[in-house]
Design a protein that fits this description.
Length: 265
């Protein structure tokens, strides 16, 4: 009997000590007194029963990253097109030289991502058409009835081109692989002409480089519309634009359609 009593007493003491520690712990948790934010970090100060303080730091960046990874349904930003232009259609039209017929563009995009394998990309931006002629001494002039192409009397032309700029809207549904290494999208675009001009460069008899500009619009179409395709393989993205409208206004120039292609940066 005495032996049993001696065994039970220590067990009861240890049990009561455990309950006391849990109570103290609960009490300490209930003594949370301060909560403030410092440098994007939540600071929680607990006042312990013995008068000391316990500090806890929770970074909001970690919470944001976790939220962003779970709720990243869209993206936006600037992209840049760098490519070349050509035109197809009327064989009698001047041939276009690829090098120098640049097609730069600046676009702001908003991309909605409802799933891993489908995106809907919309863009607004500005692009420039440049058509540089293969025949350097051929000058494009704005006539009363339309665009005309004539040989410059100097016979010493070094560069001849016409250009136009457009503000554009684009919508491109895109499918992509789960690992994101390949995607393909195609969709419509429409644009409104902002400006245009012609440029001719030649050398005079003294060898000086002379530039001449046709500052009026070179009868480029006021509106453009067509289809755009974007293909991404790994980190390389290509684009292809084809204008369904004619490059020049009706009966003001050759019957041509513009084609552009290049890289998206």
């Amino acid at each position: 009997m005495k032996t049993t009593t001696l065994i039970l007493i220590p067990l009861l003491f240890l049990t009561s000590l455990g309950f006391a520690q849990e109570a103290d712990s609960a009490k300490q948790k209930s003594l949370k007194t301060t909560n403030f934010t410092l440098f994007n970090t939540d600071v929680i100060v607990y006042k312990n029963a013995d008068g000391t303080n316990t500090w806890e730091f929770i970074s909001k960046d970690d919470e944001y990253k976790e939220y962003y990874s779970k709720n990243n349904k869209s993206s936006n930003g600037l992209t840049f097109d760098i490519g070349i232009n050509t035109w197809i259609g009327d064989d009698s039209a001047p041939a276009v030289k690829p090098w120098g017929s640049w097609n730069p563009a600046i676009n702001y995009h908003y991309t909605y991502k409802p799933s891993k394998n489908f995106n809907l990309k919309s863009t607004i931006g500005v692009s420039w058409y440049n058509f540089k002629f293969e025949e350097r001494n051929l000058q494009a002039l704005r006539g009363d009835d339309g665009l005309v192409f004539v040989e410059h009397p100097s016979g010493a032309g070094t560069k001849s081109k016409i250009s136009a700029s457009y503000a554009n809207l684009t919508l491109i549904p895109t499918v992509k692989t789960t690992n994101g290494n390949f995607s393909f999208g195609v969709g419509p675009y429409a644009g409104y002409r902002l400006g245009g001009r012609g440029k001719f460069v030649y050398r005079d008899p003294q060898g000086n480089r002379i530039k001449k500009f046709q500052m009026g619009n070179m009868f480029a179409s006021n509106f453009r519309y067509g289809l755009r395709a974007e293909i991404c393989v790994a980190d390389v993205t290509l684009y292809f634009n084809y204008d369904l409208n004619e490059t020049f206004q009706e009966n003001k120039g050759p019957k041509l359609n513009a084609l552009s292609f290049g890289f998206i940066l």
